[in-house]
Design a protein that fits this description.
Blueprint (H helix, E strand, L loop, with lengths): L1 H16 L20 H6 L37 E7 L2 H10 L5 H19 L6 E4 L4 H7 L3 H13 L2 E2 L4 E3 L11 H8 L3 E3 L9 E9 L3 H12 L4 E9 L2
Parallel strand pairs: 1-7, 2-3, 2-6, 6-7
Antiparallel strand pairs: 4-5
Helix pairs in contact: 4-6
Length: about 240
């Protein structure tokens, strides 16, 4: 409760000290802008080139990636494919890092709504029944105060008009961050880290599994395992950024 109050007071002070400021970069907003300046909004609406149809990694123009690219074709994942907004680098990376700060919940909610608008066309033509965020371990959630993936998932579910199951999937191990690990270490680090609730709401359903960043796919692969075990018919991973 003390941490929540501190976060709320901190947000109120920031709005008082910086009235009409962009939530991401703190530039003053134009009169017709609510939360993000033109430059930050452009980060969330720009297309950074052709991607692999299966893993959403960047590829050369004109390549046939209907069965995957050279990076993912041999991978056997518990999910079907990935959709993304952009590459994890430059301004988009900076924006994501700001969202993960203890004071970043309001920014994550605003980014989530803008990101969801961009995801809907990428998901068009697919049956979508439920949205599930990749959870944080309760210790990390307590430290940060919120889960970026949950903010994104709630916004996407609202845009798609489907339910968001924010508590169905649980992270049961407090593992080291994946950032500095090799692909092999990443897979070992998250193996068995997720469990699902014991109910049947996912049987035969098409799921959108939401996270902020995908690099090797190890976290999404393990998070999708309980969804498959629960009978999910299909799983599409939706992220803000891909690591390549």
């Amino acid at each position: 409760m003390t941490a929540q109050w501190a976060k709320t007071i901190g947000q109120a002070l920031r709005y008082w000290l910086l009235p009409g400021a962009c939530l991401a970069c703190h530039r003053l907003l134009a009169i017709d802008q609510e939360s993000l300046c033109t430059e930050c909004d452009r980060i969330l609406t720009s297309d950074d080139g052709p991607v692999c149809h299966r893993c959403s990694g960047s590829v050369g123009a004109g390549l046939d990636t209907s069965t995957g690219c050279h990076q993912c074709r041999q991978e056997r994942w518990n999910f079907d494919r990935v959709v993304r907004l952009g590459t994890y680098g430059g301004p988009l990376r900076d924006l994501l890092l700001r969202m993960k700060q203890p004071s970043g919940e309001s920014l994550a909610e605003v980014v989530g709504r803008r990101w969801a608008e961009q995801m809907c066309p990428k998901l068009a033509g697919n049956r979508m029944d439920l949205v599930v965020p990749v959870p944080l371990h309760r210790r990390r959630q307590r430290e940060r105060g919120f889960n970026v993936a949950e903010c994104l998932a709630v916004a996407l579910a609202e845009k798609l008009g489907v339910a968001c199951l924010t508590t169905w999937l649980r992270r049961v191990r407090h593992d080291p961050p994946q950032t500095d690990l090799s692909p092999t270490q990443r897979r070992a680090n998250v193996r068995g880290a997720f469990v699902g609730r014991s109910d049947h709401r996912l049987r035969g359903k098409s799921i959108v599994l939401v996270d902020d960043v995908l690099t090797t796919g190890s976290t999404a692969h393990e998070a999708a395992r309980p969804l498959r075990d629960a009978g999910a018919a299909s799983i599409i991973v939706a992220v803000v950024a891909h690591g390549r």
